[in-house]
Amino acid sequence: MNLPKISIITPSYNQGQYLEQTILSVIGQMYPNLEYIIMDGGSTDNSVEIIKKYEKHITYWVSKKDKGQADAINRGFERATGDILAWLNSDDYYLPGTLLKIASLLQGRITDPVLVHGGCIHTHEGKLDVFARNDTNVREKLTYSDPFVQPTTFWTRGLWEKTGPLNKSMHYVFDWDWYLRAKQYAKFIRSEDYFCIYRKHDEHKSGTGGVIRTNEINGLIKEYCDPEWYSIYLSINNRDKIISKIHWLKILKVPFLRFVLFPHLYSKFSKHKLDLFLNV
Question: Is the pTM higher than 0.85?
Fold first, then answer.
């Protein structure tokens, strides 16, 4: 069987403590038609030394200053020639057999605009905090939140060409922005398989974004999402607080208690939307 070419881009900057595991998780797939590209942003730690250690397995790599993570990924995809595309950040890593599973799911569909997503194991460095996630109903959830764990997603070149590159003016939610744009073209395929380990740590980008990240989320919700959700988001002023309240709505099965404890949130939702939000 002729396996489709898979192009994986790894953007990296000063994450030498994790980078080797990321690289090994890609080349260790032993996928016979792999194109692996590493875009390093001019790291000053041991990242370049690690990349050179494995460069015979790497199709292309560079280490120089870029305009941010989205810019690095876009430039990687400009070089990519694969039928199937994905990026893997330098603090995450694939589970064994992932690329063969992806090839099987997309075999014969590589010219169509298709995105595959699967499960992920979340870990938190130095903490006993491990859980699994594999979301359903992602098309509807994209209106309200980002249900994708980015390294579990793979898509066809046809989808990338229709959707266009990542928005390099964004630093934190460019993946969600891209999924929202891709939604208008893509067929989403959910796999029951688990594809990756998503690692949180003290320097984890999403956890250190502060006001800049919050402003990017606000702008994205206002541009793409349901006006009702945006109104609720603004009134509570914190998406995590909304999710926390929804968590309690899940636990409180009695409608009266839900209404008494969370009247503002509960009264805002139609039953259909409440059912969707309870699955966020």
Answer: no
